Amino acid sequence: MKTVILALLSFSLFVMPGLSQPDTGAMVNRIFKEALTHQVAFENLRGLTGKCPGRISGTPAAAAAVEYTRQLLEALNPDTVWLQVVEVPHWIRGRQEKGMILSAKFGQMKVPVTALGTTPGTGPEGISAPVIEVSSPDEIRELGKTKIEGKIVFFNRPMDPELFNTFAAYGRAAGQRTRGPAIAARYGAVAAVVRSLTTRLDDIPHTGVSHFDEMEKKIPAVAVSTLGAEKLHRILRNDPDTRFYMFTGCRNAAPVKSFNVVGEIRGTTFPEQIITVGGHLDAWDTGEGAHDDGAGCVQAIEMIRIFRKLGIRPKHTIRAVMFMDEEIAQSGGKVYAAEALRKGEKHVLAMESDRGGFLPRGFGIGASDPELFSQFMSLKPYFSPWGINEFARGGGGTDIGPLRQQGTILISLVPDPQRYFDVHHSAADVFEAVNPRELELGAAAITSLIWLADQMDFSGQTK
Amino acid sequence: MKTVILALLSFSLFVMPGLSQPDTGAMVNRIFKEALTHQVAFENLRGLTGKCPGRISGTPAAAAAVEYTRQLLEALNPDTVWLQVVEVPHWIRGRQEKGMILSAKFGQMKVPVTALGTTPGTGPEGISAPVIEVSSPDEIRELGKTKIEGKIVFFNRPMDPELFNTFAAYGRAAGQRTRGPAIAARYGAVAAVVRSLTTRLDDIPHTGVSHFDEMEKKIPAVAVSTLGAEKLHRILRNDPDTRFYMFTGCRNAAPVKSFNVVGEIRGTTFPEQIITVGGHLDAWDTGEGAHDDGAGCVQAIEMIRIFRKLGIRPKHTIRAVMFMDEEIAQSGGKVYAAEALRKGEKHVLAMESDRGGFLPRGFGIGASDPELFSQFMSLKPYFSPWGINEFARGGGGTDIGPLRQQGTILISLVPDPQRYFDVHHSAADVFEAVNPRELELGAAAITSLIWLADQMDFSGQTK
């Protein structure tokens, strides 16, 4: 049989009310061309990374980033720009860390380390102790207190290079950093060394937060570069009596008053229905926070710029939000959602860009209403000419996540994931690692999706 | 009406004879995982770029690249490795170029320039002359001899940043470099300055070949960086009497004997039917030729390695070919096709990778036989899990192009084009600009497509 008969659901391409499908496509193309030609997001990222590197929440650099992006938004003259107060934790890295393998058999070898966020310092003398290598927090439980007590626990699980989606590989291995030190502490470990979460073999350590519950004992912990981890692994195998020496000068200070930065264009038809687009303003101090998440911030600002430049008056209220403190306590996202609830705001849609300023591949769409979901899916043909083809269920993000329980549709920009963990939380996350065309394609993708979504009817969807 | 009835051609997924569709998919996945885990192509590229930078055809560095890749292939122990003699042009860059804007009004300003391939040198004194700016070779014809004679012609057409496909933008602007100087010479110009072919605004000049027919007068010509071009444009607008000074020390020497490098695994069932996979070995000396086209070379070698590693005995004869002299006279590709014809070889399929070692998006498929074309199109589901979704008509390339008239199916690997012209023919085309995962995904895509194609029946297709 050479032909088959298929019954398909009718597929109608979403079009702007009052506009033909070609006109709708033409508008999307104008948005992309505006971003690619003028590359303003890229220039804003140069400014943000150049003027405000090291903007961990609570630091003066974070305050500078608040003021810098507030001014960028003000200059675009939207209807309102304001700061939303957020109390944030304040972890201070202090003096440059040291890490050293001490083997009676092979000698002393320095390895590159960086302290993990929220961990305490080692004290001026540092810590030296025997090392026990594990591949997961679970293994600690199996080994028990007798094997762990008084030791430095070395978590050495590599990220799986076989997975196309590096975020999935990160997800599987990240527990050793986020919870490993706390669990090691519970079993009497004096400190922890964690293999950096990257598939690259290099000398660059990757930091990140390590969570301790309020009542949990905190111990010093560092990330070691992947080559450093490989070295420690080899030395340990050949000399089980190997010790590790580490110094960290970090400490947790009192919480600090900080801000989310919000720029808003008021909607003409449904001003009370709010669409939020955001990234996070804070970043680890090891690099410049270019991909994580300067990119998401300048893309959100670029959306406001392109709306203004092309004279688009949205029907719904559109906000660009720079969330503060995604990296440590996620307080910016929590405050934003709590304030929305307190004020009775209707948040119909929120989009987050926090996977780097890389080539956009598609969107993760978290609309539970089947009609709205299929409307979003039907937008795909407008994006295909720009290489954006992957529309899938999903959607969310650390900062917009708290809005979910208010019935908000959550959408994520999904860039290609191959290069993200080369730079993530490390000294490699600098402006030069960002390609202007990839960043701007992402900004244009966000702007186009929001422009299209602004034509939709969300009245049945909000709680 | 909520449903429509569509009649579709039946779509049957291609499967390995004797293997189920899941098993076929599993084999493709094994190929991808092998490439991503061991990253041998990436390490080979480190070697090629580190040991053989500046490998313009005819140079000692090009000879080193021949020997380096021959040894890489030999170490994989395929059935045969051999060198195919190619006579290549030998253009020598000589001393570092100089470029300077000379304005009585604004002073003297150095700008970064690089000589274009095949152009003659300026002589030791250099050339200084008034400048006339044009946006295309056609404009020279309009201006005529009186406006051009004795001048340095400044071609200042930017690459269009609005196009998603940067190769299309390159194609539109490249004539000013490939033919501009020859046409300027015809109208009496003494030299030419060409705006670098990139959408980046920076200080890095991008070289490339400039063609002169045998009887055409040759004049010195340089590429100027895009920022240099912008500067020259502004100065000229405000001081039309501006002159330009340039020095180039290049010259054309006698042709040199060089080689294509070929590694072959003999087919078990159709040994006389040949499948070729290649990239080009020569590269401009401004950078290391990492993306252009070290990437294509090591990807072809990676295919041989993965076939050997996984114990795949192909039915057809499979060759990895490093073509020599793609950049200047394309002699390697011409010789390869001519030798195939002379020996009566049946080349059923040829694939080229010469668009950089970037994220693979898909393939351009040049199969005129509709049955074979649809077989190739039906392979797409095997590649989707690896982010490779764009299967389209097309296919070809400078090196495999001459095989077309022998009825060979031509296929191109199509990587994402956003970053290619950031580095193309410039000092930015270095090993560090290549991401190992992107490079290996490309190698795995090639290897998988060739493994799948090897199961097809080409007997009706060859002339």
Could you explain the architecture of this structure?
Two copies of one chain form a homodimer. Chain A has 14 helices and 17 strands. The first copy, chain A, is an alpha/beta fold. Chain A folds into two domains: 21-90 and 254-453, Zn peptidases (Aminopeptidase), CATH 3.40.630.10; 94-249, Glucose Oxidase, domain 1 (3-Layer(bba) Sandwich), CATH 3.50.30. Chain A has an eight-stranded mixed beta sheet with strand order 2-11-13-12-14-17-15-16, sandwiched between helices. In chain A, strands 4-3-10-6-7-8-9-5 form an eight-stranded mixed beta sheet. Chain A starts with a strand and ends in a 10-residue tail after the last helix. Chain A binds chain B through residues 1-10, 32-33, 36-37, 39, 161-162, 164, 166, 199-200, 359, 361, 385-387, 389-390, 416, 418-419, 422, 435-438, 441, and chain B through 1-10, 32-33, 36-37, 39, 161-162, 164, 166, 199-200, 359, 361, 385-387, 389-390, 416, 418-419, 422, 435-438, 441. Strand 1 (3-9) of chain A pairs antiparallel with strand 1 of chain B.
CATH superfamily of the largest domain in chain A: Zn peptidases
In the predicted model, the low-confidence regions of chain A spanning at least 5 consecutive residues are 1-11
Arrangement of strands in the largest sheet of chain A: 2-11-13-12-14-17-15-16
Radius of gyration of chain A: 24 Å
Helical stretch tally of chain A: 14
Strand segment tally of chain A: 17
How many domains of chain A?
2
